[in-house]
Amino acid sequence: MSGFNYEKDADGIVTVTMDMAGPVNSMSEEFLPLLEDTAGKLEAEEGLTGVVLTSAKKTFFAGGDLNMLCQVTPDTAEQFFQGVEATKAVMRRLEKLPVPVAAAINGAALGGGLELALACNHRVVWNDRSVQLGFPEVTLGLLPGGGGVVKAIYLMGLMASNEYLLEGKRVAPAKALESGLIDATVDTLEELVPAAKSWIMANREDEAAMTQPWDTKGYKIPGGNANTPAVAQMLPAAAAMLQQKTRGLLPAPAKILDIAVAAMRVDFETAMRIESRGLTYLALTPQAKNMINTFFFQMNQINGGASRPADVEPQKTRKVGVLGAGMMGQGIAYVSAMAGIEVILKDISQEAAEKGKAYTEKLVAKRVQRGRMTEEKAQAVLGLITPTASSEDLQGCDLIIEAVFENIKLKHQITEEMEGYLAEGGVWGSNTSTLPITRLAEASRDASNFIGIHFFSPVDKMPLVEIIMGENTGDVALAKAFDYALQIKKTPIVVNDSLGFFTSRTFGTFLDEGVRLLSEGMHPVKIDNLGKAIGMPVGPLQVYDEVSLELSRKAQETWEEMGIDTSGRDNAAVSSVVSTMIGEHGRGGRYHGGGFYEYGEDGSRKIWPPLLDIYYQPEVNIPDQDAKDRMLFRQVIEALRCLEEGVLRTVADGNIGSIMGIGAPVWTGGLIQFVNTYGLERFIARCDELAEAYGERFKAPANVGAKLAEGALFT
Q: Domains in the chain, please, with CATH?
């Protein structure tokens, strides 16, 4: 029977084992009545000497009900607030029991799970790498509203709690112990509850042990309160740094800092109410609704295999061939070896292949130096990579990934020469950012086993893999690519074939609009600053320099060689600027001697002075909001078109792909999710305004109007 199992032993210790309905314990509708009933039993229990709170699930407690949080509206906000306060009230009853209460944490305790543990006087944790502790709420646009912010301040102080509250850091038990979030660890599960009971028996007469820090008379917050000179001096700087980091686009970190400061200025109970109000405020924001929808529900949907063929058995990669040991190939080799996969890293010379392996040597050496990897493990990873110039070494690879230059003739040649070395039933993957997979597969002996596997640079850091289905790609190839992406700990999205696929095609509109603004006379520095103001990592002109104008020119030439018609892309403005920059001034981008910017040997960057003479027109007055909307809406519109044309298979792929692949603003929850909370009718109206002022490229795609007519959202 599900619920909270209640068992009293001969020593008078009650063990409450949470075993709620469903796969995890969580703050569902079932939770509060169960906790209230349990608190009532404990308060009435005769001969009670202590309480152990533990879990029958693999996780200790999973936290809040995100479905419920997504449904909070202005009309239900007060009811939500009262619910938060009621939950805190019953947790306070646990804290006020006249006996020691210990949490025996057998699995992950994140968010509400950690808050429940903090309602206990003592926390002992199974020291296993599967166990994580922390407050990830900020990554969903929320804050720990069950006492997490206030109690973290009391336990750790403002500075030490920052990484948990403002960054959402999840830590292993050893780190949590060091931070003061927990009190003890055990090495085996069998020791866990006995260790909690042992602590209770040793402290059942100790008043201090059963009194929470925030209830202890004269208790001082570590590092001091808000009036302590060091803290008081630091607060303005902290607020300024937070504003600089979030650009004012993410309300959760600012609200967390406000509550943290309040916790150092007012009494505990008042601070707890302020925290509840803060959570209620954030639950109403579009940013929270966007981030919960995408980073929790849709991420789980993708990683759960929604885009993978369900009837194909698991396709584990054991030996991967990587063709090309350059920037992309060496990164693919590294992540594959780190996942325990044997790697054949091939280039045209042994020297080039060895140089590619050296990339992994450098990265694992850093990990060893920082204590994140043993020397033995590092050598094992290196032993999995075989650098070679010999094609015969590819024999028996169950997956080969070609990662050479974006040249269709070269890719065709390599496919024809190397495909025969695949193991029977093996899959050929092409790492390309723009070239249509169906055209690349023309050189394959079996196009059903040919698939696009688009990595992002740098491969070891970027979390996304874009899998591209050609017209003839089969389900087994898709399953193989999908499972390989998960194997190397990447998030896979699956899209259909198109020039530029989803990510490159959509990201290109951001660069395009930045160049258009330049050609219309806006100051280049202002363009990049406004690009960052919408939440993009860097401005469009700076990005264009990094990816290189020269590469853009070569891509256009490649498309023309392939006979691909790009006339419908309306790229005359960009072509003109690229032609002027490269053809007349030799400015091909950062790695071609400079582009829109010039670069110093010390890493400094400043606008190339002649750029202002060529393009800047001081008399031009494009409203800042128009410029920001142009750079954001172009990407949103292109993502919607990809969905409308069937390039995107799901909304989730579009949202996750836009954030993890091209750096779309986190606050949007993804380019398609943005439309849901912006409002479909409002979005169409704003598109019409932009189209009238700046061109038909801003007209809202028909699928927005269709959703509006249905009274539906993009899900």
A: 3-284 (3.90.226.10), 319-498 (3.40.50.720), 504-646+679-710 (1.10.1040.50)
